[in-house]
Design a protein that fits this description.
48% of the residues lie in helices and 13% in strands. It contains nine helices and seven strands. It starts with a strand and ends with a helix.
Length: 285
């Protein structure tokens, strides 16, 4: 079994990047000597020049973007250039225990993806409420437990990304998309508890904007893979509202009002839209 590990990099310090690549190579050399490659994707870095790094000596090679395209675009570049059927990803900022990559690979035969599950205690207090709500929402939409929606350390089969290539965004939502695709399409996922260190350098994550984007992503993917999960509850909501309004209208006026009929027809329309979306989804898979 062989693997390509992709390390996106944007203006990361030379020392941290070299340490990340070295630890990754040392980890995989323990169990997969000669059966791995490491791709560093330089996403248009301008503040740091990596020409001084001899990546060949580190058992790696660098692919450079001419301009900054985003985290997701960097990962997709790596996936398309990967020589192996398994893909591993890790951030270059020193936050993930990449020396444990060989442990992840030991589960590869039984699972379609193995993720590093970060502990809640390592998440800043200010971000925990939004993270918790997003986690519950993702689990409900997927109809399955989602251990860590956007962890940046994982391994997965290359074929799953190629199959759903058009769904992946160019920015931070790449990992969340990958998680939801596996959860909603019945893929086998293994979660391993990991430590999560404090980031070296500044983060480019935008807490409010990215949280809203994550909610939108989860909803969009749920509509793609399991449309009835959205349409059926909405349909029942409008039908129950129509019944409640109808009872009120009849008690007051001995007739049904216009709003009752509007709510009733909206409920039925949403129900049939859900059925149509489900049929389309089944035919396209």
């Amino acid at each position: 079994m062989s693997i390509t590990v992709i390390i996106p990099c944007y203006n990361e310090s030379i020392e941290v990047l070299k340490d990340t690549v070295t630890k990754t190579a040392n980890s995989l050399s323990k169990t997969h000597p000669g059966a791995f490659e490491i791709l560093v994707i330089n996403d248009g870095s301008k503040k740091v020049n990596y020409d001084s790094i001899d990546f060949a000596k580190l058992n790696a090679r660098m692919i450079k973007h001419d301009y900054n395209q985003g985290y997701g675009a960097s990962l997709m570049t790596g996936v398309m250039a990967a020589a192996h059927s398994w893909i591993g990803i890790a951030d270059s900022d020193g936050t993930y225990p990449i020396e444990r990559f060989h442990e992840f690979m030991s589960y590869a035969e039984k699972y379609d993806m193995v993720i590093g599950k970060r502990p809640w205690k390592d998440i800043p207090l200010i971000r925990r409420p939004a993270k918790m709500i997003l986690h519950k929402f993702a689990c409900f939409m997927a109809g399955a437990e989602v251990e860590d929606l956007n962890t940046g350390m994982r391994i997965f089969r290359k074929e799953i990304v190629l199959r759903y290539k058009g769904l992946f965004p160019k920015r931070f939502s790449f990992t969340s998309t990958l998680t939801m695709i596996h959860a909603t399409s019945g893929q086998r996922v293994k979660a391993i508890d990991i430590d999560y260190a404090k980031r070296v350098g500044s983060s480019s994550i935008r807490p409010i904007a990215d949280t809203i984007a994550f909610f939108s992503l989860v909803l969009r993917l749920s509509l793609y893979f399991n449309p009835l999960k959205i349409f059926i509850p909405l349909s029942f909501f409008f039908l129950l509202s129509a019944i409640a309004r109808g009872v009120r209208d009849y008690n007051l006026n001995s007739a049904f009002g216009g709003l009752t009929l509007v709510l009733f027809f909206m409920g039925f329309q949403l129900f049939f839209f859900g059925l149509i979306a489900e049929v389309i989804n089944r035919r396209s898979t």
